Amino acid sequence: MRLMTPRGSLLLLLCAMLGLLLAGRALAGGPEIQHWTTDDGLDVYYVQTDILPLVDMSLMFDAGSARDGDLPGLAALTSNLLGEGADGLDAGEVARLFEDQGARFSTSSGRDYASVELRSLSDGDTLDAALDTLTRVVAKPDFDADVLDRQRRRMLVALENAERNPGAVAGREFWKAAYGDHPYASDPGGTEDSLEAIERDHVVDFHRQHYVRENATLAVVGDLDRERVERLAETLSGALRSGEKPEAIPEPSLPDEARTIRIPFQTSQTHIIMGHPAYARGDEAHFPLYVGNHVLGGSGLVSRLAIEMREERGLSYGVSSSFLPMQTRGPFRVSTRVRTDRTDEALEVLREELRSIREDGPGDDELEDARRNITGSFPLNLDSNAKIAGYVASIGFHGMPLDYLDTFIDQVEAVDRNSIVRHFREQVDPDRMITIILGPEADEDED
Questions:
Q1: What pTM was estimated for this model as a whole?
Q2: What distance in Å separates the CA atoms of residue 130 and residue 7, rounded to the nearest whole number?
Q3: Half-sphere CA count of 441, side-chain side, radius 13 A
Q4: DSSP code of 294?
Q5: SS3 (DSSP) at 344
Q6: Is the pLDDT of residue 444 over 80?
Q7: Please, are residues 82 and 137 in contact by the beta-carbon 8 Å criterion?
Q8: What's the DSSP call for residue 250?
Q9: Which tops the pLDDT comparison, 441 or 375?
Q10: pLDDT tens digit string along 139-173?
Q11: What SS3 state is found at 263?
């Protein structure tokens, strides 16, 4: 059993207090975001929250799986190895250095980006020590061959487990079918063949090319003044290698026509995913489609899809729809699980609801309920330093307006039925929809 350090216990207590205080403050509007670029070329986004002595940092690199090239899984493997040994320190020593300061460190990666997160107390010595460890981890990873092999094996086990998960298989096949030969099509976790083919030199080269200051976005949120953040950013910027941003990810094309892919799978229910590429982050369509989708399938049990599929027909316990805007056109998806012998009925209901929101939009009451629900829950999205840092990093990474959070509620309240209809017609095309149907053959289902 690992005992928590006194600083770690204090960090947990302060985080709980901060959530309550920030939720109340967020009711007055979003935080003020400051932006500058260091002399070395690192983009910095900063929000001061002086309620409690905490700081959250998010360092994002354009180093997601869209940059994998011919080796799917390379970006994820590189990200997973950060913190597993750096500058002569092994993984245990890295972990202890963070724990000694009560700091929390984590990494993650997806299709668009890789992210490094740090949470620390904001007093000078504590933060300086945590920052020193962070810079060593990000700028000087060892990528030890034995550690790389262990991480490779973990990823291979994860792939094997995913093959037994019908939702994971359906999702993977949707991305492949919807995006074709686009970089978003491949699974971030890679394939067995690609993971086996990755060598240490591939990881080192990927890190050298993509983990550079010109390809990074730093978000800092917490109890630090501007001068302190500037020094912190210069320290981190100076530690990172200089390089270049990669070329922009190409825009995917929509499928030429609607296509249905049936995948046999021994499971108790049939999984359905429908969709295609939609819009990119920062597109003017975002707020109309966000509000319209809330009505369609983004609001849980009170959405149109849930009412029609669950309450009215008893077809499914769970159904949802979502837009996922990315650096370029991310997907619109509808997903559900149904009884195999009622698959065709479920498909017709899904298609009818899509046609309805696309042609007629929401009713007046539905629109007003959606606006009220979204704006009422918005403060919960900003009730911690970490959540604010995540938003701020995304705003910086995608080049969105600095007042995005401050104007969020006004943007939602300005959405009307006509704008929802117009953008749904432009962005959602049932005649080009990819449909994944994964489950047992109908005569094999005994339910």
A1: 0.90
A2: 12
A3: 2
A4: I
A5: helix
A6: no
A7: yes
A8: P
A9: 375
A10: 999 999 999 999 999 999 999 999 999 999 999 99
A11: strand
Q: 354: how many CB neighbours lie within 10 A of its CB?
A: 24
Tokens 């600083």, located at residue: 7
**CA–CA separation, 314 and 269 (whole Å):** 14
Contacts of 250 (CB under 8 A, 6+ apart): 182, 183, 328
Residue 115 β-bridge partners: 60, 108
Domains of the chain in sequence order: 6-239 (3.30.830.10), 259-444 (3.30.830.10)
**Which residue, 111, 127, 259, is CA-closest to 182?**
111
When pLDDT is averaged across residues 234-241 and rounded to a whole number, the result is 96
C-alpha span between 127 and 206 (Å, rounded): 29
Q: Report how far residue 94's alpha carbon sits from residue 92's, in angstroms, rounded to the nearest whole number.
A: 5
Question: How far is CA 313 from each of CA 199, 256, 362, 366, rounded to the nearest angstrom?
Answer: 53, 32, 21, 20
Token couple for 381: 């999205």
CA-CA distance, 152 to 411, in Å (whole number)?
45
Tokens of 361: 């939009």
Distance CA 323, CA 330 (A): 7
Name which of 441, 438, 443, 445 is nearest 268 in CA terms. 445
CA angle 149, 155, 160 (to 5 degrees): 125
Measured between alpha carbons, how far is 390 from 374 in angstroms, rounded to an integer?
19
**C-alpha span between 28 and 34 (Å, rounded):** 18
Phi and psi (nearest 5°) for 338? -140, 165
Q: Cα–Cα–Cα angle for 371, 373, 376, nearest 5°?
A: 100
Q: Please, what is the average pLDDT of the chain?
A: 92
Distances 82 to 8, 235, 246 between C-alpha atoms, Å? 22, 19, 21
Task: Give pLDDT tens digits for 391-430.
Answer: 999 999 999 999 999 999 999 999 999 999 999 999 999 9
Question: What is the dihedral sign for C-alpha 226, 231, 234, 240?
Answer: negative
Do β-strands 331-338 and 319-323 pair in parallel, antiparallel, or remain unpaired? antiparallel
Q: How many residues does the chain have?
A: 447
- Provide the pLDDT for residue 28: 52
DSSP 8-state code for residue 66: G
CA–centroid distance for 189 within its chain: 15
3-state secondary structure of 331: strand
Confidence of residue 445 (pLDDT cuts 50, 70, 90): very low
> With contact defined as beta carbons under 8 Å apart, do 295 and 370 qualify?
yes
Which H or E run contains 23? Answer: helix 6-26
Q: Quick check: 4 pLDDT over 60?
A: no
Q: What single letter denotes the amino acid at residue 306? A: A
**Interatomic CA distance for residues 198 and 386, integer angstroms:** 33
Place of tokens 């770690």: 8
